[in-house]
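Quick entry, no commentary yet.
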Amino acid sequence: MAEKTLILNGTTVADGIKANLAARVAALKEKGIVPCLATILVGDDPSSATYVRMKGSACSRLGMESRRIHLGAETTTEELIAVIDGLNGDDGVHGILLQHPVPHQIDERAAFEAIAIGKDVDGVTMLGFAQNAFGMAEYPSCTPAAILAILDYYRLPMEGKHAVVVGRSPILGKPVSLMLLNRNATVTVCHSKTEGLAELVRQGDIVVAAVGKPAFIQGEWVKEGAVVLDAGYNEGNIGDVDYEACLAKASAITPVPAGVGPVTIATLLKHTVAAAERRVFQP
């Protein structure tokens, strides 16, 4: 590892976020409000079940409520939306998270759109996406927000930098591109149909890997001194970048695990607490 390489420790960033939240949760409890995140898991995907447990455990450690709803793999779109509608109308629930992915028979976009904007703490609705595009989202998508939180924590500049985002999903690649653009970066978005991918990545001062393929971003694709943020998590604790190879080239890099992931969860908790505060102070 080059001496200059800064390891962007997401656990440290997340701990700072949660330390700030502890006092806010205590203040809400004094008013009789316990911030509550409802998580919906459809089916029996083991990775999704693990993610839901991690989010629930993080809530518990902060004194928040975690309401877990587990629906069968045969659940229909209509049945799922009915559950979401019930949570929308429950004043004791402040945030709703539908764990991605859902079984193939479900219209995931329709289910996301059923989440009330005031409880869309994961930033998955089209309205939330549009607000994010204009820099006005109260609850931007959590992983993109986590990436910017890491850059801010380590005081890594975005303005004027060329950011290359590999991936264009509506809850990661696209929103992080917009958030970087709003911070005055020049942004190139790459995807499965991009030609000359390696050369484009090599132009990036900031490289965001959000493609969902293990060790996909190669070391020779990364220019000397680039900042590499790995938003991927694949089986075996492997991210979307070839970590050792990119480590040798980057000026700063997130590890996997203990990189973007912990900050994503902390951001979700932050949004849920903010939604609870809004119910108290802006009823």
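second:
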Amino acid sequence: MINVENISKYIHHQTILDDVSFTLEKGEILGLLGPNGAGKTTLMRIINKITNPSKGFVSFDGDLMKEQHLINIGYLPEERGLYQSMTVEKQMLFLGKLRGLSATDTKTQMDFWLEKFDISAWRKKRIEELSKGMAQKVQFICTILHEPDVLILDEPFSGFDPINIELIRKELLEFKKKGKSIIISTHNMNNVEEICDRAILINKGQVVLQGTIDELRQQHKEDIYKISFKGNMIAFANALWAGYEIIDKEVHSDDTFTIYLKMRQGNKINDLLNAVIGQVEISSVEEVLPSMENVFVKSINAQNEIESE
């Protein structure tokens, strides 16, 4: 649906984006990750034609991105932009019209989403009367009123409590089922792991890594295994040798434990099992993959270290 091709952006001789390329496929959720100041918001503004790239181009469904394509995009910026003196109802009617909807169609959509988000009673309230979380709901609804094919969401979970975060996550997954394509910029790595199909990590305007969530976690794994067993902890530890390092443990009872081990010296899981079988009763073995937060921190630190050398 979206193809970002060799995008660079320079402002006052400063490089904001440097040769960034990626695709957003139909029916997928893509996580756009990076520390503050990485260039994520500038990139989203370029996709939405709010600003132009210095180099490169963006295409929409195979065609060079033009103003008319924006009718098929819903954009939720990080800096929220509701008119404070407008009522919720007038705000939605106004923004619906900007996106090409008739007043009748906007009202139909508005009624549906206000009821679904349980805020129908607030339709006559001015935006300035709403709590931050309530205003966030209104802006999210304004983003999806025209049923766009592509959603571009900058920190969509910011300002929400856990219940409303789950509400938004469920809606995004429903949009995905309908074939919608979604870009999410967020610092919440748990949400990335739970709902994103792929992720792209940007630091200092450059693409550091990109791939499916599983690919990225697999690429950064560190041969750590989680082993649960019943038996004597000392007997388990004595069965090991220098090829393994116990990095953490959980004691569930006097004879039930979960151990986190790091493999050393090229040892494999079969070598470990052969060493401890007969000493304890193993109930489960699981490879521990790094979280997306760990992948994020490790990748950013690695790039920063290379640049400082």
